[in-house]
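Backbone Fold Data
Goal — fold tokens
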Amino acid sequence: MTTAAPDFRIIWDNAYAEHNLGNGPAKLKNILEACRAAGHPDRPVLFGSTSKISYAGAGVAMLGGSKANISDIAGKIAVAISATISLTSCAIPAFTAISTASAIT
């Protein structure tokens, strides 16, 4: 399918890959192979998690896609993690200073 935006992505989270609705799993086409065959190998980005079949927060997350998409996402995740660490590093001394000031008064 031709799209207006050259960077259009399909964000695919097959939440029912393991547990399904009805009488068994639906037969789904492999989205990676279908997009590759249609000439758009970088279109799908796949997500998954076992949180739905374990305890919330205790699952394992998965990410799939073309090499180009994985590389792009990995770069963005690295920036997000770095920013989170920087913010956390700034917040801890500020919280400590507030706690100390509250204890003194």
